[in-house]
Every structure is written in structure tokens, then in C-alpha cells.
């Protein structure tokens, strides 16, 4: 192999032939610095301590060599990758799947809190070669004995410093104890605090140390803005932006292949010329879509990072990050699809309240602030539609011969006894029936919930979504019985009861993480939390939208469904009706529900 890292190509790295075929198909030509330095050592089976920023290509740095050593005949997990968040776990899992395209029968499984446990159990029974999971859900499966690490040959800690910030160090230690002592370990971290060094000294054997700095360029010809929006209203935000924003062609980035089709279909339903572009499309279909975009037959393409690789279409005036990228390098690559060759471009980014830390990371790495913009309001849309209608009228009056229509209007007035004003009003209504001038405001905008930029959320501090920590994690969680209320605003609240308590090993952190994540709610708006043995109560802002309430009922925390309901006997719920439409009957009814839950719990124990 060449001694000059800059002259190395993937063929020099002795990767397995099927893996080389996959990366060639993906368009990879030369390895990044972290890949060139890490792959040879990991292929040899050495432990590795890598300091590399997100966006330097570190996922491929450990995935490619570990896949090259996979035994496809062995159905038990051989590689375990621990990631701090479900988003990163999904991203790494998708990368493994892409790199293993030519490994027949290969299976990778992401494990994270909030996903259906039955689905994960079914996939585990089928047989899995690589597990990519958050520490909490991996611990959950290990305790249930639905996952065994006896066959693990390599264990990877990705973004170890983020896991440290989220309080996962003890969990990582526990998981290490369940794995064979002979396993290979690769630890990657953007920074190397003492706690990470201690983990490395304890669990890595004579590791090879690699340090690579990321290169992130700022893009000065592109106007960049972001909108804080909940997950449930991202589609509304996109369609509203498309209506009020003048654009030639647009590239919309999402995280998954499934999302490309979903978003494109919804845009088409709203009357926009949109198509998906993803890795499942063959080269002919891909070229057809790109050519249609170039010729103006298509205005919007919804794509993943991989599918948009090498895309250069002069018409693209706007890039929308429908799903915020997990690393600054991806952000720079995405928005670089506009503003090319010195032309001006616009980049918009949708940021969920729990994703503000990703926005800050992008701003820090690009060394520039990305200003916030408000989602277009109902009034904005109304004014825009009226302006467009008036322009259309003026152009028609100036350019069209309307003599026949003047005569028809005169006839209608005489024969139907209609005034010209009545006829004009009816015709205006008919012409705007699909996009009425009167637009209903979104519920979150009416209440001002969680959409305001600048509020500090628990997810922004890196707390685990949907209860990524497993049950029974020690006395320290049980001792924190209550979470004090942080009433830094005057938001009226009501009390809800959830079917998860001390018996499930839950702590306030899991509850806050799950509700903030799934309801798109700023953690600062979650009030007092009281945890008892079989259930808990939590104060939330009044007037929870029905769709969010129904969604929260199905969310799992520590393996237990929230089954959230308005607490009819508590201080926040007095005198109100529950979301199920039952009247408040006071403490007696609430107590009856509690006894019913205890009976169910006892029944489960007998089973």
C-alpha cells in the first residue's frame, strides 16, 4: 500500500470483493483520511481509538472493514455498534445496509426506544449479523434475554463523547461486561475528555490511536434560514413555503428512502410537480428524473444524501433540509447543490424543537449563524393567494379578448336576475375552491406551543428519546422520585396520568424525553412529574391536539406503553373532560382506575 495517504484508493485497502463492488456503485473513489488510516488496522483485528468529527467519513471507516470480516453463515450478531440517538442508529444502520448490498443474506437491525418491541423480537429471531442500537434499548433486550452478545466479534462506540454527555457511561460499562473479552473494540469520539480516556484504558487493548480533523467550508453565495417546526407539521410547513417562496427548481432532502416517496406523493397531491430520487432506483430511472428536472418538466426532487451524490442541475434555486442532517459536513454538501458557479441560492432547514443541538453544531462548524424565519401563517397564505389572483385578473384583462364573456355576463344579469357582483363572487369562489383565500391556522401556531426559536429543550441537551434507557438501571433513578416544575412561563397546564412507574424502572428523564420527542414539545413546557409504583403523573400545556394525544397513547417508555389519559382527580384536570369524552367524577373514579391497573399488573406477574 502506498505510504502517501492522499494517493490511496479503495482497491489498496484489501477490503472484501463484495464490499468494493458496493462502494464503487455508490460512487466512492478515494477514501477519506479517517478511512485510509482506520481500515487497515480494523481489518487486522486491532483495537482502535479514533478522534474524528462527524462528517469525516468515520461510519465507513469502521463499517467497511468489519463487513469484510462478517461470516454470513453465522446467524448470531457479530458486530454491535452503540450510538447515542435513534437518528444516528438509523443512519449507521442504513450505511451498513448500503455497503453490504452485495453480501447475499446479510441483515442489520437498528434497536432504539420507541420502536415496536414485537417487530424487533421478530427480526432478532430471524437472525442478524450487525446490531446498531442505543444503549438503553440494547440493555433492555439483554435483560430480557432476547439478545445475546456471546458471538460478538467487534464492538463499536460511535460518538462516545455524546453518550458521555447523555449519561450513558455506566450503561456502556454494563454492556461491555456482557460481551466476550476477546472482542475487538473501536471507539470514535469528536473530543477526548478524561471519562472517555478512562473507558478506553479499561476496555481497549493496545489500541491504535487515530486523530483526524474535519474540514467544513462556509457557503457565502447561499442565503440560509431555518424554521423551528414540530414533526407533525413539517409537511404543512413545506407546502406553505412552496406557496409563498419564489423558486425555479427545488431539491428536498430527507433521511430515508421511504420518506422520499412519501413526501413526493404528498407534494403531488398538493399540485406540485415532484418526484422521488433514492438508492432503490436504477440508473435509467435516476437519469430520467434528473433530465426532467433539467428540462423544467419537474420542479421538485425529494432525495436522500446518497441518491443526490453528484447531482448538478443549474435550475436548482432552493435546497430544503426537510430532515436536518446529523452532521455539518452533510449539511454543506446538501446546500452546495444550489448557488453553484457563483450563482445565488437559498437553503431552508426544518428543525424540530429537540434538534436544536444539531442546528448549533452546524452553525459552529460553518462559522456562521443561520437566522430563523417564521413558518408562513394563515394570513401570509391568504394575502399571497389574493395577490396572485389579482395579478391573474390584471393579466387576463390586459391580454385576452373578453367581448364574448362581457355579453355572457350581461345575459346572466338579465335572465337570471343576478348582479355582476354576485356572479363575480361565485366565480371567484369556484376558481379558488382548491386553494381558498381563507386559510385555517395550525393549532401550534394558534397556541404558540414549541414553535418559538431559542427555547432550550431537553433533547437539545442530548437526552435520550422515547426512553432509550432500559428498566431497572439502579437506585439512583428510583431516588429521583419527582421532577420539580420549571415554570419559567405562564403556560396553563393540566395533569395527565401515564401507565409507567417505578416498577418499569422509569425516571423523569425518560418521561421528558419521550413526550418532548413524540409531541414536538419544548422540555421547558413540561411541568411537575410525580412517579409512583405503577403509574406517574405529568403536567403538560392545556389543550393538547387530539392527533398528538392519540399518538402519545401508543408511545413506549422502558418497554411499557404510555397509555396517557387526562388525570380526572388531580389538580390540573379538575372540572375538565378527558380526551376520551368522559366527565370528571373525582378521586373515586381515578382511584378505581388505579386499582384496575394494579390488578392488571398482578395478573401479569402470575403469568
From TrEMBL:
Residues 39-210 form the Helicase ATP-binding domain. This is ATP-dependent RNA helicase DeaD. Its EC number is 3.6.4.13. Keywords: ATP-binding, Cytoplasm, Helicase, Hydrolase, Nucleotide-binding, RNA-binding, Stress response. It catalyses: ATP + H2O = ADP + phosphate + H(+). One of its GO terms (cellular component) is cytosol. It comes from the Bacteria. The gene is deaD. Residues 8-36 form the DEAD-box RNA helicase Q domain. SMART domains: DEXDc, HELICc. A motif (Q motif) lies at residues 8-36.
Amino acid at each position: 500500500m502506498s505510504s502517501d495517504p492522499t494517493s490511496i484508493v479503495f482497491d489498496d485497502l484489501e477490503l472484501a470483493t463484495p464490499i468494493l463492488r458496493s462502494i464503487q456503485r455508490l460512487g466512492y473513489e478515494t477514501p477519506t483520511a479517517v478511512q485510509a488510516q482506520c481500515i487497515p488496522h480494523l481489518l487486522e483485528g486491532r483495537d482502535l481509538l479514533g478522534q474524528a468529527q462527524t462528517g469525516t467519513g468515520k461510519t465507513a471507516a469502521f463499517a467497511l472493514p468489519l463487513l469484510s470480516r462478517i461470516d454470513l453463515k453465522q446467524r448470531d450478531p457479530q458486530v454491535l455498534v452503540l450510538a447515542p440517538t435513534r437518528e444516528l442508529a438509523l443512519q449507521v444502520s442504513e450505511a451498513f445496509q448500503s455497503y453490504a448490498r452485495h453480501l447475499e443474506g446479510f441483515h442489520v437491525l437498528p434497536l432504539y426506544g420507541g420502536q415496536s418491541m414485537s417487530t424487533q423480537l421478530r427480526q432478532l429471531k430471524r437472525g442478524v449479523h450487525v446490531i446498531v442500537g442505543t444503549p438503553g434499548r440494547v440493555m433492555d433486550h439483554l435483560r430480557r434475554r432476547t439478545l445475546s452478545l456471546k458471538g460478538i466479534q467487534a464492538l463499536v462506540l460511535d460518538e462516545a463523547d455524546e453518550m458521555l454527555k447523555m449519561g450513558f457511561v455506566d450503561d456502556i460499562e454494563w454492556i461491555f461486561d456482557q460481551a466476550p473479552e476477546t472482542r475487538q473494540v473501536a471507539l470514535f469520539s469528536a473530543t477526548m475528555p478524561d471519562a472517555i480516556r478512562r473507558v478506553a484504558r479499561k476496555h481497549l487493548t493496545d489500541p491504535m490511536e487515530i486523530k483526524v480533523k474535519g474540514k467544513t467550508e462556509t457557503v457565502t453565495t447561499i442565503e440560509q434560514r431555518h424554521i423551528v417546526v414540530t414533526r407533525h407539521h413539517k409537511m404543512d410547513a413545506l407546502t406553505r413555503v412552496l406557496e409563498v417562496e419564489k423558486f425555479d427548481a427545488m431539491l428536498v432532502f430527507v433521511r430515508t428512502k421511504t420518506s422520499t416517496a412519501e413526501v413526493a406523493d404528498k407534494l403531488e397531491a398538493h399540485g406540485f410537480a415532484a418526484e422521488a430520487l433514492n438508492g432503490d432506483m436504477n440508473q435509467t430511472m435516476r437519469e430520467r428524473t434528473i433530465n426532467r428536472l433539467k428540462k423544467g418538466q419537474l420542479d421538485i426532487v425529494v432525495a436522500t444524501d446518497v441518491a443526490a451524490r453528484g447531482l448538478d442541475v443549474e435550475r436548482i434555486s432552493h435546497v430544503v433540509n426537510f430532515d436536518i442532517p446529523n452532521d455539518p459536513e452533510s449539511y454543506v454538501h446538501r446546500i452546495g447543490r444550489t448557488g453553484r458557479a457563483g450563482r445565488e441560492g437559498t437553503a431552508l432547514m426544518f428543525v424540530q424543537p429537540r434538534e436544536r443541538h444539531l442546528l448549533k453544531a452546524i452553525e459552529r462548524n460553518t462559522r456562521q449563524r443561520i437566522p430563523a424565519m417564521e413558518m408562513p401563517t394563515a394570513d401570509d397564505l391568504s394575502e399571497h393567494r389574493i395577490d396572485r389572483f389579482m395579478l391573474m385578473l390584471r393579466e387576463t384583462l390586459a391580454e385576452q379578448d373578453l367581448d364574448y364573456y362581457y355579453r355572457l355576463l350581461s345575459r346572466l344579469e338579465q335572465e337570471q336576475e343576478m348582479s355582476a357582483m354576485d356572479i363575480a363572487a361565485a366565480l371567484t369562489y369556484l376558481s379558488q375552491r382548491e386553494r381558498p383565500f381563507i386559510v385555517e391556522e395550525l393549532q401550534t401556531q394558534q397556541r404558540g406551543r414549541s414553535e418559538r426559536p431559542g427555547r432550550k429543550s431537553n433533547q437539545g441537551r442530548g437526552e435520550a428519546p422515547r426512553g432509550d434507557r432500559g428498566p431497572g438501571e439502579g437506585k439512583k433513578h428510583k431516588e429521583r422520585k419527582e421532577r420539580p416544575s420549571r415554570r419559567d412561563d405562564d403556560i396553563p397546564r393540566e395533569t395527565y396520568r401515564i401507565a409507567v412507574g417505578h416498577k418499569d424502572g422509569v425516571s423523569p428523564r425518560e418521561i421528558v424525553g419521550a413526550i418532548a420527542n413524540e409531541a414536538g414539545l419544548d422540555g421547558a413546557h413540561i411541568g411537575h412529574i410525580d412517579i409512583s409504583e405503577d403509574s406517574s403523573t405529568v403536567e403538560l400545556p392545556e389543550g393538547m391536539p387530539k392527533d398528538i394525544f392519540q399518538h402519545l397513547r401508543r408511545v413506549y417508555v422502558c418497554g411499557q406503553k404510555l397509555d396517557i389519559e387526562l388525570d380526572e382527580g388531580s389538580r390540573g384536570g379538575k372540572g375538565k373532560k378527558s380526551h376520551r369524552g368522559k366527565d370528571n367524577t373525582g378521586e373515586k373514579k381515578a382511584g378505581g382506575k388505579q386499582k384496575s391497573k394494579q390488578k392488571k399488573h398482578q395478573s401479569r406477574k402470575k403469568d
